[in-house]
Amino acid sequence: MRSDVEDQVKRDRINLRVIRPMVADWLEKVDVAMKDAETIKATAESENWCLKGWCPNVKLHHSVSKKAKKMSKVLADLQVQRENFKELTNSPTPVGRVSRSARDPGSPSSNAQVSISNLNNDSIDFKSRSSVMTEIMGALKGDQICMVGLCGMAGVGKTTMVEQVEGVTKAEKLVDWIVKVTVGQQPDLIKIQTVIAEYLGLELQEQVSVDARANRVKERLRQINRVLIILDDVWNWLDLEKIGILVGTNHKGCKVILTSRSEDVCQQMRTKKIIKMRQLERDESWVLFKKMAGYSVDNPDLQDIARQIVTKCHGLPLALVTIGRALGGKDKCEWENALQQLTMPCQATLTGVHAEVYPSLLLSYNHIATEEARLLFNLCCLFPEDYEIPIEELFRYGEGNYYLKAAGINLD
């Protein structure tokens, strides 16, 4: 009886399901009952004769019998309770639910300096980002603005900024739910709806139409008083109504932040407030680059080269991070070659990637340590943007490349 329940609970916990309070209470009662039953059994099997073994101890037998009868009823009641359990566990807490626990004293606030914290184990605070954070948080706290657009070139730190906003919003309990969706260059409405549903603990059927799914999303949002929806990496106008996102007079408690490389897209989306994300200041760029490159920058022979490289990064965090990490621990020759590559005009471009960013990405690619790592990177590029790549499928591609190379065919 008990072992079956425990086994099922263990399996459910692997899937992050939460044991129901009544089931946890039942397991505790079973533990107590089993211990009491063992005690009764041990008493019954103990020395229970009197008059030097010539006469059974009737009083003790009677007492044990009464306890055993009572215990039988307790176990029978527990068995009935077990049979009445329809579910042993509850679904896991949706990822979008903001915890109601007391605020962590060490958590960020909207008055704090904004840091680039997802680039390394510890954060770096930048004053130049504080004004942007203040504007965004002011819009979220007010009643007049329902949708904010954050725009800026690729690599300037838009995604990092909204991650900071998400952290502050959670810490200050400004909303009850937070949803974050990466839209991408070719938005898939079904996928976007699915991600929103997962954050909100909503079940959507794949077979039904986009419109029917949108209605389900709307109904779920209407049940929530305060919700923040972050739409990251928006390339073109997106029909929020078609997705099921309610804003403005339809749901005054729903706030939307979208990030885009294009200010025009923010305008097309009719955002009430558009905030432009600028590059880092010169001194901030140097601090970030030093953090990524490590002790190498302390070498007097490299400092002048390092500062020239920082200048070529044009204050873009993505460029500073990728180049700094690529050059960390390298000799002077590598640094000089890197500066030369960054100085040379680059004809090739990537769609949506600013010309100032491309040289740093190319340099980072050229510094991938091994041929195997570069092959793995190239294989990942075969898949669509934001695609969750199955390891098995990636392995098959790698295995196919190996056999093609053995046959003298090089796909690089």
Mean pLDDT: 82
| Quantity of strands, as a count | 11
**From the alpha-carbon coordinates, what is the Rg to the nearest angstrom?**
31 Å
Terminal Cα span = 60 Å
Q: What is the string of helix and strand elements?
A: HEHEEHEEEHEHEHHEHEHEHHHHHHH
Proportion of residues in helical segments: 40-55%
Uncertain stretches: 102-107, 117-122
Question: How many separate helices?
Answer: 16
What amount of the residues lies in strands? 5-15%
Shape: elongated
Largest sheet: 5 strands, parallel
> Which class do the helix and strand fractions yield?
alpha/beta
Could you please describe the fold and organization of this structure?
- The protein has 412 residues and is α/β, with parallel strands linked by helices.
- Helices cover 51% and strands 11% of the residues.
- It has 16 helices and eleven strands.
- The protein has helices spanning 2-14, 21-45, 58-84, 130-141, 158-171, 189-200, 210-222, 240-243, 263-268, 282-293, 300-312, 317-327, 332-343, 358-366, 371-380, 391-406; strands spanning 18-19, 49-50, 55-56, 89-90, 114-115, 125-126, 147-151, 177-184, 227-234, 254-260, 273-276.
- The strands form four sheets. The protein has a five-stranded parallel beta sheet with strand order 8-9-10-7-11. A two-stranded antiparallel ribbon has the order 1-4. It has a two-stranded antiparallel ribbon with strand order 2-3.
- The longest helix has 27 residues, at 58-84.
- Mean pLDDT is 82; it is low at 102-107 and 117-122.
